[in-house]
Amino acid sequence: MAAYFEFEPEKALVATAYLADRSGETMYTILKMVYVADRLHLERYGRPITGDRFIAMAQGACPSKIYDSMKVLRGDENNNYLPESEHYLSVDAITYDVVVKDMPSLDVLSASEIECLDETVSILKRRGPRHIRDLAHDAAWKETGRNATMDFLAIAKSIEDGGDILAQHLETRFSS
């Protein structure tokens, strides 16, 4: 049995813009930060922020629909899953720098979601992009084949101190 959440495009857009605005990082680091924030929120509150499916890419866990949308913003792709993202964000086609042109309203995010986004930015500021990259290469990523979808049960089980309990909760939730 696999566990997946419903993708929430508005939350995904706001979370991506929030991380870009507060980190000043490139597209690739921001994508890994989305994974770290979603995983942290899953650990603490039993659900991710964005609901995006994560792909176990060679460079770490990557949110599929957000990645496709960022490729649209840099001019490479035509599948944009983030509503009106071109109004809020741009991605440089050469450097992959993400520019927040206008910050979307944070009203779609809960206090707990903002808490986890802020903590992810704090981890980046304290430990650097390399550490964020390392966090996106966790046990769930390691046990998933390259370019395959990571199951949220595997992500839950990879969490230390309570991951098994969270995985049991998700198994119960998704088995009904």
Let me know the largest β-sheet.
3 strands, antiparallel
Mean of residue pLDDT values: 94
- Lateral strand order in the biggest sheet: 2-1-5
Number of discrete helical segments: 9
Cα end-to-end separation:
11 Å
**Helix and strand element order:** HHEEHHEEHHHEHH
Work out the count of structural domains. Answer: 1
Indicate the structural class: mainly alpha
Sheet-strand content, in percent, reads 5-15%
Number of strands: 5
Helicity, as a percent range: 40-55%
Global morphology: globular
* Radius of gyration (Å): 15 Å
- Unreliable sequence segments: none
Structural features, described:
There is one protein chain. The chain is mainly alpha-helical. It has one domain. It is built from nine helices and five strands; from the N terminus they run ααββααββαααβαα. It has helices at about 10-25, 25-45, 65-75, 85-90, 110-125, 130-135, 140-145, 150-155, 165-175, and strands at about 55, 60-65, 90, 100, 150. A three-stranded antiparallel sheet has the order 2-1-5. A hairpin with a 2-residue loop joins β1 (about 55) and β2 (about 60-65). The longest helix has 19 residues, at about 25-45. The protein is globular and about 40 Å long. The chain starts with 8 loop residues before the first helix and ends with a helix. The mean pLDDT is about 95.
